[in-house]
Specification:
The chain has 212 residues and is of the alpha/beta class. It has one domain (2-209): Rossmann fold (3-Layer(aba) Sandwich), CATH 3.40.50. It is 26% helix and 30% strand. It has six helices and 14 strands. It has helices at 13-26, 39-43, 56-64, 69-79, 89-92, 197-209; strands at residues 2-6, 32-36, 47-50, 84-87, 97-98, 104-105, 112-116, 128-133, 135-136, 151-156, 158-162, 167-172, 176-183, 186-189. The strands form three sheets. Strands 2-1-3-4-14-13-12-9 form an eight-stranded mixed beta sheet. Strands 6-5-7-11 form a four-stranded mixed beta sheet, covered by helices on one side. α1 packs across α6 (197-209). It is globular and about 45 Å long.
Length: 212
Amino acid sequence: MKIAVIDYGSGNLRSAARALIRAVAETGRSDEVVVTSDAETVRHADRIVLPGVGAFADCMQGLDGLPGMHQVLQETVIEGGRPFLGICVGMQLMAEWGREHGDTEGLGWLKGEVVALRPADSALKVPHMGWNELTVRRPHPLMAGIAPGAHAYFVHSYHFAAAETEIWTETDYGGPVAALVGRDNLAGTQFHPEKSQAVGLKLIANFLEWRP
């Protein structure tokens, strides 16, 4: 199986790729992990991962700048049903709109918009940076084998205000924050699985096995 990690100039793709390679090795699989900006390579991948750090608009611009990538993602992910994992801003790009530094249209794969994080508790700082507890709202195969009360690592100033039906797991940071969202073959984490140690590696291993 080939896993494509899309390179569109985002900062965390190498660490995401390393985490995927480690999960492949630790589960005894023989999958190939490829970091690529080539649409045709993505077309022939069995699973697709979109990492992301930085501002929504900058990341969307970077993705838009890859020739043929939008069409290939539409054909393989939306029409073809291939398993897709977005990480942090890569998850946020699935939204209809990003409201960071103006209004930027997203991929529109999931309902909702990406808005500024405003904790109800003024003592909580933004960006939200550190370990937070995950609360499962709707059981999902990506969370299989992850113990209740597990913590994951977050770094973000904006969050995905997603439709209720598309939030699988959330955290609390002065109010509920979507941590794992998706539908059908789409999944996205606001936290960084590549920085979340055993919890993150388990989620990645689950993604490798996922048959939506």
